[in-house]
Every structure is written in structure tokens, then in C-alpha cells.
UniProtKB/TrEMBL annotation:
Sequence ranges of Polar residues compositional bias: 305-316
Domain spans labelled Methyltransferase: 81-170
Organism field: Desulfurivibrio alkaliphilus (strain DSM 19089 / UNIQEM U267 / AHT2)
Official protein name in the record: Methyltransferase type 11
UniProt cross-references to InterPro entries, sorted A to Z: Methyltransf_25 (IPR041698), SAM-dependent_MTases_sf (IPR029063)
Region of interest (Disordered), ranges: 291-326
Length: 326
């Protein structure tokens, strides 16, 4: 049976249908929460991060992501940097050699222990570790505004809008986010080989839209990692895949066999005897940043004037201006 024809929408004054969905009606923070509910991986709690801290630290000591992240900016020796969700010091440690002072914040005590251990080994004395979550009152923990605030791969929070507002509030001149694009570090082909469903959850586009709704015109660049990662032996290559599997959903013997078959099909030797593991889809990350003196997107006028930080002129990210925090 043919449905009756719909009567054309009556246009109110101004010519916009009342039932029209408009961009300004979208609640990106609510959509973020909803998408997180349906992703394949449950959120790791503090205990799981504590258990994985040592392994996480060893896997990130030599990180091509870190190299690309740091290369995008001219880090100034007078800057103070707040690294929110610092983990074992993936960025905080190399940044401490480039800037005046780093405050490294993480909610997992074992991550901060790994950071402190490596800080001592490297002879660094300008990193202050603070155990805190995004939801905590940072002022009560004597965390003050810094020249630069970083959230690198650490915005797995329910209230993304609240975290972004906090970043903006604690930044004097520059805020930088490293955010997942699509599957990010996860390998969709691996989950297909295991026969497991895979939904990576929401990615950087939600962050970008929430910032826009907050009146922040952020700049975006992309970090695309190589298809191959080099490992000293087969077991280390297999371990690099195992971290993707949630601890509460361990592999069955059959799945373990499939994972090893998947790895063996993609491993090939290098001339120096090490092994290269190739994946079909490279890891991608969005590098989102904004400067505090930019004009508001919604006509509230310019933010409080500060001098702009230098952005590396040899990177795809371009910015005029001089120094900040001087």
C-alpha cells in the first residue's frame, strides 16, 4: 500500500522548517558518550593501567609517534608544560629536556612510578608528577595554569566537553591534543582474523566539533605512522598485538593460534636479523591545537591577549607570531 504524500513543511518566519535538524542542535558531548557505550573495548580502570604500566612504558620508550609529535613545534626553554594523562612519561621525559618545567598528571600510580624511575635514571629534576584524574579538582592539588597544556592520547573520558574546557582554562597560550583517527593504534584486520567484532568508538571528529561549539577554531594536522614496526624477535612482535586484547576478554587457545598465524603471515626479516611486522592500515592520529589569543567562533570577541608560541616552520602546521610565557 502506498503511503500518503506528506504535506510540505510549513515554513515559519525566517524560512526555516520547525522540524529541520540544525548543526547547533547537535549535542556532540552526548553523542560522544553514546558512542563510547558501544565501542568494543571497555574503558580501562586505574587498576588495569597499574598492571600494564611497566609493559606500556617499555613499548613507548622508542615511539615514532612521540618523535613526530615533538617535531611539530619549536619548544621554548622558558615554557611550562602541563602533560595531562602523561602515562609513563612518553612525552614528559623528552619535553623536560626542551622546556623549563613539566607537570606530569596521571591517575594511575604505577604509571607515575615508571615516570619517576626513568626521570631519576636520566638525571632530570624539572618534572613534577601529580596523581589526578580529569574529573579531580586540579586547583586543590596545587596545579596552576601553564604556558602549554597537552592531552596526548589521554582523552578517554565520559565528559569530553568538560575535559576540553579544563584544558583551555589551564592553558596560558597553547593547548595540544593527540587524538585517535578511526581505529588509531588498533588493527582492525587482527580482530577480523580472530573473528571478534571491532568498534573503535568515537574519534577526533567529536573533539573537533565540541571545540567548535565552545567557540574554539582549532587547527588540525595528522600523524600517520609507518605500516611497519621493527621488533627484536617474534615474541616481542606477538606481544605488540596482545596488548589490544582486553584483560577481561582473554584469548581462547583457538584465538591465540589465529593471532600467531596472523603475525607470522606479516613478519619478515630485516638484514640486521630483527623482524618487521607489517599491518595493512597504518595508525593515524589527529594533532589538534589552538592558541588562546584566537578570535572566538561565535562572536564573543578575541580571547585575552597573549603572545603566540612559535610553531615549527618546517612542519605542515603553520603559525605566525612570537613567543609566549616570556
Amino acid at each position: 500500500m502506498r503511503a500518503p504524500a506528506r504535506e510540505p513543511a510549513r515554513l515559519p518566519q525566517g524560512g526555516v522548517p520547525r522540524d529541520r535538524l540544525r548543526y547547533r542542535d547537535l549535542d556532540w558531548n552526548a553523542m560522544w558518550r553514546e558512542e563510547r557505550r558501544h565501542k568494543s573495548r571497555p574503558r580501562r580502570n586505574r587498576g588495569e593501567w597499574d598492571r600494564r604500566a611497566a609493559d606500556f612504558a617499555s613499548r613507548n620508550l622508542d615511539s615514532p609517534y612521540t618523535d613526530q609529535f615533538l617535531a611539530r613545534f619549536h619548544w621554548q626553554p622558558h615554557w611550562t608544560v602541563l602533560d595531562a594523562g602523561c602515562g609513563p612519561g612518553t612525552l614528559a621525559l623528552p619535553l623536560a629536556r626542551r622546556v623549563h618545567r613539566v607537570t606530569a598528571v596521571d591517575y594511575a600510580a604505577a604509571m607515575l612510578a615508571e615516570l619517576s624511575k626513568e626521570q631519576q635514571r636520566q638525571g632530570l629534576n624539572n618534572i613534577r608528577p601529580v596523581q589526578a584524574a580529569w574529573e579531580d579538582d586540579w586547583e586543590k592539588l596545587a596545579i596552576e595554569a601553564h604556558d602549554v597544556v597537552i592531552a596526548s592520547r589521554s582523552l578517554a573520558v565520559d565528559d569530553l566537553e568538560g575535559a576540553l574546557k579544563k584544558m583551555d582554562r589551564f592553558s596560558k597560550c597553547l593547548a595540544i591534543i593527540g587524538d585517535r583517527v578511526g581505529a588509531g593504534p588498533f588493527d582492525p584486520e587482527l580482530f577480523a582474523a580472530l573473528g571478534r567484532p571491532f568498534d573503535p568508538g568515537p574519534d577526533y571528529i567529536y573533539t573537533l566539533n565540541i571545540l567548535y561549539r565552545l567557540g574554539i577554531h582549532a587547527k588540525v594536522d595528522f600523524i600517520i605512522l609507518d605500516h611497519e614496526r621493527i621488533y627484536p624477535d617474534r615474541q616481542r612482535a606477538i606481544d605488540s598485538l596482545l596488548w589490544m586484547i582486553p584483560a577481561e576478554e582473554p584469548l581462547s587457545p583457538e584465538e591465540q593460534h589465529r593471532l600467531e598465524e596472523y603475525a607470522d603471515a606479516r613478519l619478515h626479516p630485516k638484514p640486521d636479523g630483527r623482524l618487521a611486522l607489517r599491518r595493512d592500515t597504518p595508525s593515524q592520529w589527529a594533532l589538534i591545537h589552538w592558541e588562546k589569543n584566537q578570535a572566538s567562533a561565535h562572536g564573543r570577541g578575541p580571547r585575552s591577549p597573549v603572545q603566540q608560541p612559535k610553531i615549527s616552520t618546517d612542519s605542515p602546521i603553520k603559525s605566525g607570531g612570537t613567543r609566549c610565557g616570556s
